[in-house]
Design goal:
The protein has four helices and no strands. With 135 residues, it is an all-alpha fold. The protein has a domain of 61 residues. The longest helix has 34 residues. The protein is rod-shaped. It is found in: Secreted. Belongs to the apolipoprotein C1 family. One of its GO terms (molecular function) is phospholipase inhibitor activity.
């Protein structure tokens, strides 16, 4: 408590100073009470509890998602995946090779070449037949 020893106004000034101290203490007490009340309110407020619960659930979901994505496939799964990739690759190569050979077989160049070989073979056959018939 602050006390003034000045006698200006006599005891009135002393009472005034005591009153100011009293008011200041009351204000400090009121501030402390509001702080305590706010802390208690935060702990017991259903809205805050729901918010804390929703935040906890969101963090849990994120942790589960991160954990599930972090799992690496087993060695068996890796071999099965590699086997499927090789099978798909081989099937794709077979289809492309067959289509390319069909295109070559049906091309004009291939037809002319076959005809030329057939004609040459027939000519050789005739010459051989003529050579053996003369004797």
């Amino acid at each position: 408590m602050k006390r003034s020893l000045q006698f200006r106004g006599g005891s009135y000034q002393l009472r005034q100073r005591a009153g100011e101290d009293y008011i200041e203490r009351r204000q400090q007490t009121a501030v402390r009470q509001r702080q305590v009340l706010l802390l208690k309110t935060e702990k017991t407020d259903p809205c805050c509890e729901e918010m804390r619960l929703s935040i906890a659930i969101a963090v849990l979901v994120l942790a589960v998602i991160a954990n599930s994505e972090a799992e690496e496939p087993t060695l068996e799964e890796q071999f099965a995946k590699f086997q499927n990739q090789m099978k798909d690759f081989a099937d794709d190569v077979a289809v492309k090779t067959k289509s390319t050979l069909d295109q070559i077989h049906q091309s004009e160049f291939a037809a002319k070449t076959r005809n030329w070989f057939t004609e040459q073979f027939d000519k050789m056959k005739q010459k051989i037949d003529e050579a053996f018939q003369q004797k």
